[in-house]
Amino acid sequence: MKRIVVVIVGLALIALAAYFVLKPRMAENRFQEGITLLDSMKYELAVEKFTKAIKLNPKEYKYYLKRGIAYAALNNDSLAVDDYSKAIQIDSTISDLYLYRGISLRKQDEFTEAMADLNKAIALNDSSAQAYYQRGLLNAALFEFDKAINDYNKSIELDGSNIEAFFSRGESLANIEDFRGAIANYDKLIEGSNATPEAYKKRGIFKLKIQDYKGAIADLEIALKDLPNDEELLYSLGDAYSNDKRFDDAIKVLDKALAIDSNMPMVYGVKGGALLRKGDFKQAIASFTKAIQLKPDYLKAYYGRGVARAFMKDYKGSIVDFNKVIELNPDYVQAYYNRAVSKAILGDHKGAIPDYDRIIKADPKNAEAYYNRGISKMNVREYNSGCDDFQKAYDLGYKPAEQMLNIYCPKDKNVKTIIQ
């Protein structure tokens, strides 16, 4: 009996010893199964395998790292951060652990902690292109665009194959209004092996920003071949066509954008501008009105409609629109000018004069404003002051003022007598 017990105990000890010997191998097997599932984007199943691996061997940092990556792919960044932190407790010298934790912290808007982790990742491995790229994204989220650009530069220097780094750098350059720099950024992408439709689209949009309309059209038309239903592309191409005076082409492409989504106020606004410049004032008013219905604070739509109404001789309507423009932006000088003209045509010269005053204050060399103010002053019998305005307009090189001076302001005669 004793012998049987000894044998049983011995077998149990052997089995237990075998289990502890095989345990790390079993953990590694579960881990490799998890990797296969992770690569296949079966994230929930991957988490299960990594969890089994961790139970078998809780002292292996890479198990926590990969489970953290799976959690992050499932948008569970809180659990991902917990796993990365456990991995760091096991080995605090691995750059990627800080990198991934920094990414998840950024996604949770924990920017201070994320920055500390990304700085640590770079300190541990200053050749990590991904760490610089992720820190660039974080700096951009913090509106530190110059710092972001420096990080993207370093990331691209280390790994020029990361297309997203080029796009992110382009956006940051645009945010500091360095549109030529943004164009140069996409030049490098297009001249390489990554001439994607999206790259042409972005470069075209930034060419539009610097008023290179023909260059913008060339790029946007290339992009359009592969992105025929891209609303932003259609809108930008329509804008470029309009500015290049290809009004029918502009209207056609903008109508295509509106067929995809009829609730885009900016597209109606640009279409209204094309119709206005084409001389189709009635349709321009309709397009601007639709834009305003969708976006009640759309300043340029009010301004464009005001101009179109003035061309249609609806001066009262134009004044209403210019009033709204000035309400939205009291420094929009051109609205004062057009409102003054409409007021003057309606005979409200007294109301027009303060608008001309505002224009001249903003632009003391605006000869036409002096000239028109002179006319309005004559109409309210401010004769001497009106003559002063004609003289100023003439001195600034506005030739029509000479005729007004000769007729109404001869130096040897009384101005009031001449007017009467």
TrEMBL record:
GO-annotated biological processes: receptor-mediated virion attachment to host cell
SUPFAM superfamilies: TPR-like (SSF48452)
Source organism superkingdom: Bacteria
Coiled coil segments of this chain: none
Organism field: Tenuifilum thalassicum
Cited InterPro entries: TPR-like_helical_dom_sf (IPR011990), TPR_rpt (IPR019734), Ycf3 (IPR050498)
TPR repeats: 27-60, 61-94, 95-128, 129-162, 197-230, 231-264, 265-298, 299-332, 333-366
One GO CC annotation: cell outer membrane
Keyword Nuclease among record annotations: no
Name the record gives this protein: Tetratricopeptide repeat protein
Key words, A-Z: Repeat, TPR repeat
